[in-house]
Each structure stands twice: as C-alpha cells, then as structure tokens.
Amino acid sequence: LHARYVLQLLSETRRVLKEMPNITHLSTSYSKEITICGDLHGNLDDLLLIFYKNGLPSEQNRYVFNGDFVDRGKNSMEILIILFAFLLIYPNDLHLNRGNHEDYIMNLRYGFTKEVSKKYKV
C-alpha cells in the first residue's frame, strides 16, 4: 500500500481510537460469538488462517485481538493495515487491545521499527 494511503489509514485510525474508551466491556449471548486472538507477532499467514477458518470481521462475526500484533515476523505492517481497516469499518465489532509489543522500546528491539523504515523509507 502506498505510503500516502498508509498515512491516511493511520490518521483516521488514530482519530477513531482517541474517541474510544480505554476499557471496553463486551458481552455475548447465545446468538453472538466473539473470536479472541492473540500474539500474531507479524505473521500474516496466521491472521489470514484465522479469517479463513472463522470468517472476516463483521457485525455478525466479532473479534478481539489481544495485542502483540507486530514484531518478529516480516509482515507486521500488513497486519496493522488489515486490522486498522477492519477497525474503521466495524468499530463496534473488532477490538484491539494493546500488548507489550505495541511499545516503542519493544518495536526497536524486536524489529518493527526496522520493518517500517525498510518498507516506507523516510
């Protein structure tokens, strides 16, 4: 994705996230399910497999991602682009919890900063 569109996506995602509460309470009933995922660590194949097996996020197919989206794998940017796009489309049905790998120091240590610099040169 061209850097211009990535910046637009990041800007809009930031705006939406700032409007959301720090703590989100979710409930389920017999008619609704929530898929809970964690620790993708930059592995795009894992995210695509989850969507293949469980379906794409929607109002009827809710997801919670419990952090550690980035680092270690080579496709952290692609994961963020996909998750942020779904968050903008379904802000009440896709939830992103920050993990310890969504931290500046962790990004430096485990490769996300390097990946972003490589894919989107300054």
How would you describe what is shown here?
By secondary structure, the chain is mostly helical. The chain has five helices and three strands. It has helices at 3-19, 44-54, 76-89, 104-110, 112-119, and strands at 34-37, 62-66, 94-97. A three-stranded parallel sheet has the order 1-2-3, with helices on one face. β2 (62-66), α3 (76-89) and β3 (94-97) form a beta-alpha-beta unit. α1 packs across α3 (76-89). The protein is globular, with a radius of gyration of 14 Å.
Shape: globular
* Terminal CA distance: 15 Å
Kindly estimate the percentage of residues that lie in beta strands according to DSSP: 5-15%
Total helices: the number is 5
**Poorly predicted regions:** none
CATH overall fold name:
Purple Acid Phosphatase, chain A, domain 2
Q: Total number of β-strand segments?
A: 3
Largest sheet: 3 strands, parallel
Mean pLDDT: 90
Q: What is this structure's SSE topology?
A:
Blueprint: H1 3-19, E1 34-37, H2 44-54, E2 62-66, H3 76-89, E3 94-97, H4 104-110, H5 112-119
Parallel strand pairs: 1-2, 2-3
Helix pairs in contact: 1-3
Brief overview, please?
Residues 97-102 form the Serine/threonine specific protein phosphatases domain. With 122 residues, the chain is mainly alpha-helical.
Features of the shown structure:
3-stranded parallel sheet, single chain, 5 helices, 3 strands, 122 residues, Purple Acid Phosphatase, chain A, domain 2, mainly alpha
